[in-house]
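Lay summary. Proteins are chains of building blocks that fold into shapes, and those shapes determine what they do. In this project we predict the shape from the chain. Here is one chain we studied, written as its sequence of building blocks.
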Amino acid sequence: MMSEEKSRFRIKKGETEIEYEGQSKEVNERYREAFEWLKSLRPEDTEEKQSEEKGTGLEEKRGGARKELFSPKIDELIKGNYFKLPDKRKVSDVMKTLMEKGLPTSGKDEAVLNSLKRRLGKTLKGTKEGKEWVFWTE
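And here is the predicted shape, written in a compact code that computers can read:
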């Protein structure tokens, strides 16, 4: 009894994914067709091509989806009355508290500030006092 020679491939580009399994000869042919079809989907002048012309492009791409890091912890602080009046909290206070909770805050001042600003009018009040923002809840 001879066993059939089977192969399988999977190609994923963005939201499009193609997977095929079958006899090796047919799989090879389908792979070539699928690969050519996917190549034809992208416009000629993509970011990939532009970055290749500039250089490696690795410095410009951040690679992968960003995970919300500070937002859930800031929401916890809000629910735990961390910002409750009469204590107004400076961004530096929030950074220190987040660091104590184990989050890597070094050099992330802007990310924390932006996360706090997104909550203005919803759950926080804030103002700029001098050069630093302060936040509170009532």
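What the prediction tells us: The first strand starts at residue 6 and ends at 13.
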